[in-house]
Design goal:
This protein has 291 residues and is an alpha/beta fold. The protein has a single domain, classed as Divalent-metal-dependent TIM barrel enzymes (TIM Barrel). It contains 12 helices and 12 strands. The strands form 3 sheets. Strands 1-2-3-4-5-8-9-12 form an 8-stranded parallel β-barrel, surrounded by 4 helices. The chain has a two-stranded antiparallel sheet with strand order 6-7. Strands 10-11 form a two-stranded antiparallel sheet. It is globular and about 50 Å long.
Length: 291
């Protein structure tokens, strides 16, 4: 009987150890008790390094424990070659940014390129416009977005627009961002919240996540240096980007609202000169943040 109990105890210990090991192995960088991600990296964060060494920089991305990436170009490489380099490192391209003028002129070509890269989402981060962004330019963008969304949908890809600050100008008691969201087809056009570019014009990311909960599918988690000036320019010093948890964002509130809103993927985007140093700090913050 003793030997039976001993065997049972050993079996429990083995299974417990095995489960603990599996749990540890399944944990991904940037996720923790409350924040479950999935979290990735917008590769534009390391654009200076990519300009010099594409494979070496992809190795750096992988070394941070990152699996998911968002693209902003393929650094003069054909789409299939760049995808092969990602595949070799176990990196999965979820989304990508393409130029607004391409969507306006050749949305079908963008759709084919996005499909070749294996993207689930393809979007744009800047509307070509003459400042200040106004109602007429917003209406034009709505038309471009709906057509682009239809072209991408034929390839099984979701179109999205990434906020950039200038769209939050007041308009008829609301903002041009409200007009943009309400004017686009929810089935064809999703939105990517860049937290920096919501707060930069003086808005609250949590409020916008709660206001249009079904429209935000992607998010750039980006913190803002204290003292950064607010305006509608859509421009700011890249070094106003700081590691997550060291700036002015209320991350517990934002991440809780994002979860409730149904955000599908989160990406660190850090455009600062210190991005390579900030990325592991930001991942560590997301692992411990509570909400």
């Amino acid at each position: 009987m003793r030997s039976l109990f001993a065997f049972a105890a050993l079996a429990v210990a083995f299974l417990s150890g095995g489960c603990a090991s599996t749990s540890t192995n399944q944990k991904t960088a940037g996720t923790g008790h409350d924040f479950k991600g999935p979290i990735g990296l917008q590769l534009y964060s390391l654009r200076a390094k990519f300009a010099k060494d594409v494979p070496g920089t992809l190795d750096v991305v992988k070394s941070n424990g990152i699996k998911y990436v968002e693209l902003a170009g393929t650094y003069n490489l054909p789409a299939d070659q760049f995808k092969k380099m990602l595949d070799e490192r176990g990196l999965v391209a979820i989304s990508g940014h393409f130029g607004y003028d391409r969507y306006a002129k050749e949305p079908e070509a963008v759709a084919k390129e996005a499909k070749a890269l294996g993207l689930k989402y393809a979007g744009v981060a800047w509307i070509t416009h003459k400042a200040p962004f106004d109602e007429a330019q917003c209406k034009s963008a709505i038309e471009v977005f709906n057509k682009a969304g239809a072209a991408l949908a034929k390839e099984g890809i979701q179109f999205f627009y990434h906020t950039h600050g200038y769209e939050f100008r007041p308009h008829n008691g609301e903002t041009l961002m409200d007009m943009l969201i309400k004017g686009t087809d929810p089935k064809l056009v999703a939105y990517q919240m860049d937290t920096f570019w919501v707060k930069h014009p003086g808005q609250d990311p949590t409020t916008w996540l709660n206001k249009y909960p079904s429209r935000w599918k992607l998010m750039h988690v980006k913190d803002m240096k204290p003292g950064t000036e607010s305006n509608f320019s859509g421009g700011s010093s890249v070094n106003n980007d700081v590691a997550l948890g060291t700036g002015t964002m209320n991350w517990p509130s934002i991440l809780k609202a994002a979860k409730n809103a149904g955000v599908q993927y989160y990406f660190i985007e850090d455009e600062s000169d210190a991005a390579a140093e900030h990325i592991p700090q930001s991942l560590a913050y997301l692992e411990k943040v509570t909400f």
